[in-house]
């Protein structure tokens, strides 16, 4: 019996399950459309949404000196393996530099290059802001704040589920 079937038998309203199904399917569609339309917004700069996320992470004040590959992977919530190919392409294109950590030679530090910073600040960021304006055109500031609040709640619950699965081998057999 699946987890959904157990919830139905336990008395969870079918309407709530249907709404959850629609919500998560729409999140899936939004993620796909973000990749498609977001990449199109910055393609003239030679960037994708994944590269946009890396440059955005590295542009933060607390990342001025760069970030370890592990910290960057955790911040972006991707695996190191998925990040490795992306970082190689970005290094090849001159957006970032990857160097050994002077404090821990086993670790590598990723930092934006001057060229990457210029691409981010002067070329990509204005297009990203225009993209945000187009996508959120029908949203008030209040709507956007509420949406962010609910997405953060979903993210926190997913992170809790992920942490539980990582520490509980029985959780992997739940379905």
The H-and-E topology, N to C, reads as HHHEHHEEHH
Q: Please write the CATH class name.
A: Mainly Alpha
Profile the largest sheet: 3 strands, antiparallel
Tally of domains: 1
Number of H- or I-type helical stretches: 7
Strand content: 5-15%
CATH topology: Arc Repressor Mutant, subunit A
Mean pLDDT: 91
Query: Total number of β-strand segments?
Result: 3
Distance between the termini: 7 Å
The helical percent reads 55-70%
Structural class: mainly alpha
At the fourth CATH level, what is the homologous superfamily? Winged helix-like DNA-binding domain superfamily/Winged helix DNA-binding domain
What's the alpha carbon Rg, rounded to whole Å? Answer: 20 Å
Runs in which pLDDT lies below 50 for 5 or more consecutive residues are none
GO molecular function: DNA binding; DNA-binding transcription factor activity
Protein name: MarR family transcriptional regulator
Domain HTH marR-type: 20-156
Organism: Roseiarcus fermentans
What is shown here, in short?
Pfam families: MarR_2. The chain is mainly alpha-helical and 175 residues long.
Q: What key phrases describe this protein's structure?
A:
175 residues; mainly alpha; 7 helices; 3 strands; transcription regulation; MarR/SlyA-like; DNA-binding transcription factor activity; DNA-binding
């Amino acid at each position: 019996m699946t987890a959904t079937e157990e919830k139905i038998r336990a008395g969870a309203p079918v309407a709530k399950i249907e709404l959850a199904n629609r919500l998560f399917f729409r999140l899936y569609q939004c993620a796909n459309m973000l990749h498609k339309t977001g990449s199109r917004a910055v393609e003239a700069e030679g960037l994708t949404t994944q590269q946009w996320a890396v440059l955005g992470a590295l542009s933060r004040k607390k990342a001025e000196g760069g970030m370890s590959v592990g910290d960057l992977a955790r911040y972006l919530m991707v695996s190191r393996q998925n990040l490795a190919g992306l970082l190689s392409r970005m290094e090849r294109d001159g957006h970032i530099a990857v160097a050994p950590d002077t404090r821990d030679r086993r670790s590598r530090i990723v930092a934006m290059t001057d060229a990457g910073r210029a691409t981010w600040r002067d070329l990509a960021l204005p297009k990203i802001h225009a993209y945000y304006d187009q996508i959120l055109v029908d949203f008030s500031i209040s709507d956007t704040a509420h949406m962010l609040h609910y997405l953060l709640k979903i993210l926190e619950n997913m992170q809790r589920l992920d942490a539980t699965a990582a520490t509980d081998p029985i959780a992997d057999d739940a379905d």
